[in-house]
Automatic annotation (TrEMBL):
This is Conserved oligomeric Golgi complex subunit 4. It comes from the Eukaryota. Keywords: Golgi apparatus, Membrane, Protein transport, Transport. It is found in: Golgi apparatus membrane. GO terms for biological process: protein transport. Belongs to the COG4 family. It comes from Fusarium mangiferae. InterPro entries: COG4, COG4_C, COG4_M, COG4_N. The lineage of its organism: Eukaryota, Fungi, Dikarya, Ascomycota, Pezizomycotina.
Length: 725
């Protein structure tokens, strides 16, 4: 601001003084109220002190109250831990007692079976049960004091060992006698009893003792000695050559003995091929008709059965000795194993001197040598054909000699231990396992992948195919007349095939480490994939057939009878009960009030007990699950159809009857209650009193999820209409 005169300057100064006074006034205004502010702060400080004192007093009271409670909780916790420990000790003691009682029962069963009855199967089964009891229990002091008896005074472990040795010697004697007589049934009977008593080694080695002639593996042994001799030469000279001439010269040294191996090995293979008439045998294998398999895959027609039997080719028309084929397979397995070991040795020598990676393929000269070509032509291709033929022939023979379990009935108790499966399953799966062990022992990836694929095809087409055809055409449990029931023998036979498919689902598993046998490149991975495809394909086919069989068993056998049981159970059941009629337990005895569930339980147990005894646990569980789901839907439909026809007392009786039926079903497994959850909720809603329902609706309002977990609003309204009010 420009000032031009003294008056203007005074005027400006006056304005500044006025602004200064106004500012001082504004600054002094808060200070005038500070007296009240400080007084309030003092009051707060005083309250803070009082509150601290009260907090200290409250804490003292709290500690005084909680200390006894804490001591009590500690005592209770100590007592609970003591009780838990006592409970565990009692449970452990009960387990030991049960095992000792099982041991005593098994020893008594062994002594009894080996006595006058001479029931060798039962004695073997008792020994098998004993093997499941821990060794420390068998040799324990408690068993020593409890188990010995007048019939078996020795310690239990001594009695078991003596019985096992006696049975093993007896089975060997009977096995040799049956083999000498050519009694195939008796041979198979005692051969299967060896693994049950823990004598599998005797069973596997004994049949081969009489086949150890010198010329059986003459050519295979000569080839093995040739390759072993060449490997020794290479091993003894490779170190010297590497030290004096360099590592790169070792490969050249290996190539020279390899040429001699090509010549001598080729001579051995050519002579073996000619002596064993391999070409002729392969031609016979290719032309073998597998008449039984072909006939078994044809639709079952009673009218032409005898006509076909008359046109069957006789066994004399096919001059093919299966035992010679088996011997040929053993020779080829031994030769291929020797060749694989030789290749592995040569490859390791080449990789060692050249510092190559571990998983590289064999050296090029070994892959292109004449002996490799001879092995591929004379061994690998015949091996594939022979393996496939022997397996198909084993499947055919197993079904030819197949016998169903005897003495089974749906109306009377049957002897024996479940599951009851057909003999063919055990025989075929034993052959599969034995054949896979032979194939894997060759160490040849090409052979293993090809033969496992062939085995898979045979299992799918022949094994599963025949079972499917028999289940469909020969023993499908179809009633002869409308409204009737299938014949009992068909039902039992059908259940046997269903159990057989479930056994095939779990039978194949690889039990051998592949990395040690297949060391080249990705061979081990490819072999493992082939075995996995074999198992997956069989399991997929078996599972599909199993599910179809269980569904057919339910539709044709179980459900028609359950429907009849339901009709009988609800006969004369009245739910339109007036208040004047007696219903309470004081007026009506329990048996009368539970007559529906008692009738159902009687019919259900009579129906399912034989099925449960004959079938495997898995197949029966699947069948029971189907029954539970179907029953839940039928009972729910019955509940809806009773809408408006049920009084309040009748609704309670209806819920009681349905709950009794559900309890009977759930005895086979608690999971079987799940399909009935919706039905139970419907009955619970239906039997609620009006005031209770109003209270529930007012508590949860329009939230359906809170009121009912499984019912919609429409279902809830319908459920409220079931009971007439």
């Amino acid at each position: 601001m420009a000032v031009s005169s003294e008056a203007e300057l005074r005027h400006v100064l006056d304005q500044l003084h006025e602004q200064e006074d106004a500012l001082i006034y504004k600054l002094d205004a808060p200070m005038k109220d500070s007296r009240n502010f400080y007084r309030d702060l003092g009051g707060l400080d005083s309250l803070h002190g009082d509150l601290d004192m009260q907090l200290i007093a409250a804490r003292s009271i709290h500690i005084a109250m909680l200390c006894p409670a804490g001591d009590t909780a500690e005592r209770l916790s100590t007592m609970m831990r003591t009780l838990d420990m006592e409970k565990k000790r009692v449970e452990a003691t009960l387990i030991i007692i049960e095992q000792v009682m099982e041991l005593k029962a098994c020893i008594a069963g062994i002594i009894g079976s080996m006595g006058a009855p001479q029931d060798w199967e039962a004695a073997a089964n008792y020994l098998s049960r004993v093997s499941n009891i821990p060794e420390d229990i068998v040799r324990g002091e408690f068993a020593l004091g409890v188990v010995p008896s007048i019939e078996a005074p020795e310690p239990p472990w001594a009695t078991i060992q003596t019985a096992r040795k006696s049975l093993c010697a007896l089975f060997l004697r009977e096995f040799n006698a049956a083999a000498a007589q050519g009694d195939g049934t008796k041979v198979a009977r005692f051969f299967k009893l060896f693994p049950v008593i823990g004598g599998a080694r005797s069973a596997l080695t004994r049949p081969h003792e009489e086949r150890g002639r010198h010329d059986d593996l003459f050519y295979a042994n000569n080839l093995a000695r040739l390759l072993e001799h060449i490997a020794q030469i290479i091993d003894s000279h490779s170190g010297l050559v590497e030290r004096h001439y360099g590592a790169d010269k070792v490969v050249q040294v290996i190539e020279r003995p390899q040429k001699e191996a090509d010549i001598q090995g080729g001579i051995i293979l050519d002579t073996w091929n000619e002596e064993r008439s391999v070409a002729r045998m392969m031609a016979d294998i290719k032309s073998y008709p597998f008449s039984f398999l072909s006939k078994s895959m044809m639709p079952f027609q009673r009218g032409i059965n005898f006509a076909l039997r008359g046109n069957e080719p006789s066994k004399d028309e096919f001059n093919l000795d299966v035992k010679k084929v088996e011997g040929l397979l053993g020779e080829m397995t031994s030769m291929l194993k020797s060749w694989s070991l030789y290749k592995r040795f040569i490859t390791s020598k080449c990789k060692g001197v050249l510092d190559q990676e571990e998983k590289l393929p064999p050296p090029k000269f070994l892959h292109q040598c004449d002996l490799h070509k001879k092995v591929s032509e004379k061994l690998i291709e015949p091996y594939k054909l022979t393996t496939t033929f022997l397996f198909r022939r084993s499947v055919e023979k197993a079904f030819e000699m197949d016998t169903a379990p005897s003495g089974l009935s749906l109306s009377t108790p049957c002897d024996g231990s479940p599951p009851f499966i057909l003999q063919a399953l055990d025989d075929i799966m034993y052959v599969v396992d034995n054949l896979l062990q032979h194939i894997l022992s060759t160490g040849n990836r090409e052979v293993t992948v090809s033969t496992t694929s062939a085995i898979s095809r045979v299992l799918e087409s022949d094994f599963i195919g025949i079972i499917h055809r028999r289940m469909k055409d020969e023993c499908y449990p179809k009633a002869a007349a409308q409204g009737g029931f299938p014949r009992e023998e068909k039902v039992i036979s059908f259940m046997g095939y269903v159990s057989e498919t479930q056994g095939a689902d779990m039978a194949i598993s690889s039990t051998q480490t592949l990395k040690d046998s297949f060391t080249f490149g990705r061979d081990a991975e490819m072999v493992a994939n082939g075995l996995r495809r074999l198992k997956d394909a069989l399991c997929a086919k078996a599972t599909e057939l199993l599910n179809d069989g269980i569904l057919a068993l339910f539709d044709e056998v179980l459900w028609p009878r359950i429907r009849l049981i339901l009709t009988t159970s609800f006969q004369n059941a009245v739910y339109d009960v007036s208040e004047g009629e007696p219903f309470d337990e004081e007026d009506v005895d329990v048996e009368t009030s539970q007559q529906v569930s008692l009738r159902f339980e009687g019919g259900w147990l009579a129906l399912t007990r034989p099925l449960k005894h004959i079938m495997t646990p898995r197949t029966y569980a699947a069948l029971a699950c189907l029954a539970a789901n179907k029953l839940a839907r039928v009972l729910e439909k019955r509940a809806w159809s009773s809408s408006g026809l049920v009084t309040a007392l009748g609704g309670l009786r209806l819920e009681s009857d349905f709950s009794g039926i559900i309890s009977v079903i759930a005895k086979d497994g608690y999971a079987l209650r799940e399909p009935f959850a919706r039905l139970q909720e419907i009955l619970e809603v239906a039997n609620m009193e009006d005031d209770e329902w109003d209270e529930l609706e007012s508590a949860y309002g329009s939230s359906r999820q809170e009121r009912s977990r499984l019912l919609s609003d429409e279902d809830t309204e319908m459920a409220r209409k079931i009971v007439r009010r």
